[in-house]
Design a protein that fits this description.
This protein has 368 residues and is α/β, with parallel strands linked by helices. The chain contains 17 helices and ten strands. The chain is globular. The N terminus is likely disordered. The chain has one domain: TIM Barrel (Alpha-Beta Barrel). It is an enzyme of class 3 (hydrolase). Catalyzes the hydrolytic deamination of adenosine and 2-deoxyadenosine. Keywords: Hydrolase, Metal-binding, Nucleotide metabolism, Zinc. It holds the Pfam family A_deaminase.
Length: 368
């Protein structure tokens, strides 16, 4: 695959890629706000700590802060977005606009994650936080449908790995599992907070036949990936980019270590986020991103945005960056999209319907 991939009659530019049906597995709700919305919500709730009061300047501040090369510094930017997502109106508006923005970019399926425990400062309960967010997703889906388009958006509930509420958030995810929440996740700084600290939450999810992903292999390296899959039983790996540390590239052919072999053999999906991985220092540059090698070795790679505001990115931008860096064609982008859809946490019949009736026909038009 790659440069020799089949090219269709449509040019592989941003406008054409936006028309392609896309599936997104790793996108943080609090990392994708519109700058103008942050300013508006800050005024409404009396938050006066924004670093800028102009949408353009604020967007620039977020991007520049995100390109620090430090995951810790990267995560600090969320203090501002989370601050304006403490009320019913704030949560609902952000969720609605998230759906609208993704649909405008051609996304047809998205799993959006956020940490309810971070939205309790105005007195909302955990259940209320989830209810208002899901209401926003539903409003967004309705608005998109009214415009003649379709998007399916579901939710992952995230627990913060430095806190001690993971079991409580797992239980919350199960309470809403038939109302739009399809899984569970842990996130936050990896160093010093191994996933095994939250083993009771993962065991509770497995005991109830529920799905979960784990942020691992982004900043801390291979040990976090090993724990996530061997001890915790993760269905997917959030990022997982450091799996490259278990692949020996010194010989004529890459040689996989035991962890890398297990991840590939078990078809454990990698939620790769190219722009974000560069921003946080997980990789030096997009040209050096292991995405291409992992795809060539047939790991189940998927393309994701992580935080659209911080990366000033969209799914279409992420795909175009991969096209420019590695020479991918339409058939490659279709494969990555189908990888994501196969790995989604919705039921098999829904996944198959989207693959057969939305994604494949949509790419067929572009491929020709």
């Amino acid at each position: 695959m790659g440069a020799d991939s089949l090219r269709g009659p449509q040019p592989l530019d941003l406008a054409s890629i936006r028309r392609a049906p896309k599936a997104l597995l790793h996108d943080h709700l609090d990392g994708g706000l519109r700058p103008a919305t942050i300013i508006s919500l800050a005024e409404a709730c009396g938050y006066d700590k924004l670093p800028a009061d102009d949408p353009v300047a604020l967007g620039t501040w977020f991007r520049e802060s995100a390109y620090s090369g430090s995951l810790v510094r990267y995560l600090e930017t969320f203090a501002h977005t989370v601050a304006v997502m403490q009320t019913p109106d704030g949560l609902t508006r952000v969720a609605r606009e998230c759906v609208e923005d993704l649909a405008d970019d051609g996304v047809v399926y998205a799993e959006i994650r956020f940490a309810p425990e971070q939205h309790l400062e105005a007195g909302l309960s955990l259940d209320e936080v989830v209810e208002h967010t899901l209401a926003g997703f539903a409003e967004g889906e309705s608005a998109v449908a009214a415009s003649g388009r379709t998007i399916r958006v579901v939710c992952l509930l995230t627990a913060m790995r430095h806190a001690a509420r993971s079991l409580e958030i797992a239980e919350l995810a199960l309470r809403f599992r038939d109302r739009g929440v399809v899984g569970f996740d842990i996130a936050g700084a990896e160093a010093g907070y191994p996933p095994s600290r939250h083993l009771d939450a993962f065991e509770h999810m497995r005991a109830n036949n529920a799905r979960f992903t784990i942020h691992a292999g982004e900043a801390f390296g291979l040990p976090s990936i090993h724990e996530a899959i061997a001890f915790c039983g993760a269905d997917r790996l959030g990022h997982g980019v450091r799996i490259i540390d278990d692949i020996d590239r010194t010989g004529s052919e890459p040689t996989l270590g035991r962890v890398a072999n297990y991840v590939r053999d078990k078809r454990i999906p990698l939620e790769l986020c190219p722009t974000s991985n560069v921003q946080t220092g997980a990789v030096e540059s997009l040209a050096e991103h292991p995405f291409a090698l992992l795809a060539e070795l047939r790991f189940r790679v998927t393309v994701n945005t992580d935080n659209r505001l911080l990366g000033d990115t969209t799914m279409s931008n992420e795909m175009l960056e991969l096209v420019n860096a590695f020479g991918y064609g339409w058939s490659d982008l279709e494969r990555f999209t189908i990888n994501a859809m196969k790995s989604a946490f919705i039921p098999f019949a829904e996944r198959l319907r989207l693959i057969d009736h939305v994604i494949k026909p949509g790419f067929a038009v572009l491929i020709g």
